[in-house]
Amino acid sequence: MSPAAASLDPVPAPSRWAEATDAAVLCALADRDEDALRELHRRYARAVYALALKSDRVNPEAAVQLAFLTMMRRAGDQPRSLLGARAWVLGVACWTLSRSLDA
């Protein structure tokens, strides 16, 4: 396993958000809860990393970090009734990756 992949392994210690739904974690993230960000990262880092690799990023780890920072900034904008939490997370990741490629 590469060092980058090892850094994406789930956090072994359960967080207080471990049993919560993705929607509940996003609500907490909108309130700037850092534990919620860690939980979201634990759940979705591998998927976002895979998207970064497919986008041929020179530094996929930095792209993943940027995607999660964008999620934290935009969590309050998440339309909870129109879009599932998973779709929103991956959509923000794709949007962030495409925008960072344009720059």
UniProtKB/TrEMBL annotation:
Q: Which domain of life is it from?
A: Bacteria
Q: Which SUPFAM superfamilies match?
A: Sigma2 domain of RNA polymerase sigma factors
User: InterPro entries this protein is in?
Assistant: RNA_pol_sigma_r2 (IPR013325)
Q: What is this protein called?
A: RNA polymerase sigma-70 region 2 domain-containing protein
According to the entry, what is the taxonomic lineage of the organism?
Answer: Bacteria, Thermotogati, Deinococcota, Deinococci, Deinococcales
